[in-house]
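Task card 7
Instruction: Convert sequence to structure tokens.
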Amino acid sequence: MGENTFYVTTPIYYANARPHIGHAYPTIVADVLTRFHRQRGIDSFFLTGTDEHGVNIERAAEARGVAIRDHVDQVVDQFKAAFAKLGVDYDRWIRTTDPKHEAAVQTLWRAMEERGFIYKGSYEGWFCGYCNEFKDVDLQDNNPQCEIHERPLDRVAEESYFFKLSEMQKPLLEHYEKHPEFVKPDVRRNEVVSFVAGGLKDQSVSRVSVKWGIPVPGDPSHTIYVWLDALSNYITALGWGSGEHHEFDRYWPALHLVGKDILRFHAVYWPAFLLAAGLELPRTVYAHGMLLRGGQKMGKTLGNAIQLEVLHRYFTPDMIRYFLLREVAFGQDGEVTYEALIDRVNSDLADGLGNLASRTLTMIRNYCEGRPPSTAGADAGVRAGLEEVKRKFDEEFASLNFSRALEAAWSGLARVDKFITDNQPWKLAKDPSARPQLDGVLSVAYEGLRHLALLIAPVLPESARGIWAQMGLAGDPLLIDPNEAKWGEPLEVSAIERVSPAFPKLDKEKIMTEINNEASQPSASATSEPAGAQGEQAKKEEPASEAAGAQAESNIITIDDFVKVELRAATVLEAERVPKADKLLRLLVDLGEEKPRQILAGIAQHYAPEDVVGRKIIVVSNLAPRKLRGLESNGMLLAASIGEDGRPVLATFTEEVPNGARLK
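Output:
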């Protein structure tokens, strides 16, 4: 990637679940960066896609009861649809199941093997199918869990091919020192340097127990380690390894945008693989932070996730794009809430950019017959101020400081807005003798809006196009370099006739009430038809047999619903009654985790504490925590309900089952 080309990649997303805001964030950033560089005349390429191999894909397809290929095809369609709704326009979607990719990965393997960096051995360790990596856990540990996914690890002992990562310590450290821009931000670079300086071990790069993957060349009983397969996409998508190298020669090396949780793969393993194959390393690996809500990482278990479906229902793609880039400093963790999004839209977009566009164009339509005046008026430093804004905007964007870049743009907007307010054109319009002054003020306001629309177009593409069209200007603002636009240059402008708000004000109370009401409803109660007067009337009028059938149908769940519930074996270690709660027992149970878990169960009227200690039970282990009588319950035990009084009978096993074993 030279001065006149730009190549940006997102991580390729693992095809085992539906897309969420964590996937959307780096993808929007990559889209904005690509539009920014293209607008400035730089030949750019934007790659994203899906990682479709590995044991977790096999498990996900099996759990759904579908063929693996059908599963990944459906997930890919979901990702593409989600990104399209966010205004994302990528150049290529890479799939690791593409035959060209698979062949190129085998070419990369041969290159490393021929240079002496791959050898055969055997391996035993704890493997996380969700991370697709072995964990540094003592083999003597009993049922360890992945710290990231909080799921049990699989113990794997098998023949394996190994990559000589241990030989890469010195060349990697030398590269980090020579190219400080290789890992960004600096705090992440320091982490990577520290990790590599601590010593590297040879890595297993094949599996014999995983069949859904790319066969090792010359030894098809092994499949290539999924991370080696996945990381290779950044060069195989450009034709490397398939005899079609022109795009690779044109665009490589890349800027990789990755989450900090996968930084090690991209900043240590990936450059090591490339060095072993004799290939040029990426330009920069930039690690962004986590999106938080309530100070915690978003997740289904905590019930604090920002849902893409909700975002699409209440906000336009440009609103979402602006909020994520303005609210969250790229490279740092950032708090994201629906409330903050509404506030940002109303203050920055509706009252800011939208108001400036509406007031400027409305006055030109009303006072100048829809034609912006060509009279050059005294601009009170607006022109010079916007030139400095453009310089600052580009400088911050080049450093991926998007929030600061947008802050600079909005300072320019405020300058134009203040200029209008200070000169009060609505008063000048009442005085015929002040016509030259009125034309000068509106000319400055129009020019300021034009330059700002160009500047913010990569972030707000549809809004910028809408404002541009309302200004009576031809062409696409995304194809006009803001730095080439000249103040007061001759323009072909059609009459301004229709002025509509670019960003209508959002009703925060109404939107939040609807979102909160929706979040409080159990998912099982959702139906295909919204409840309302007609729906209630239909329920009253339907025959009893049809009503019973509808009720039965509403209780039917799909395999997708069932696999969300994690049922695991556990042993009760301690039990005691909860003070002032006749029905509750506080249980401490062993789920095969690092620490016992506390569960509250409403069985005290039928089971004495000493009756349940030592019992093997079944627990719903991924239930969101809830508080009862001031105590937190982290799960729910299963019991049958017997007789008219609903007497509970604990579910258990007739054979020995280890704690933590999952029921399927």
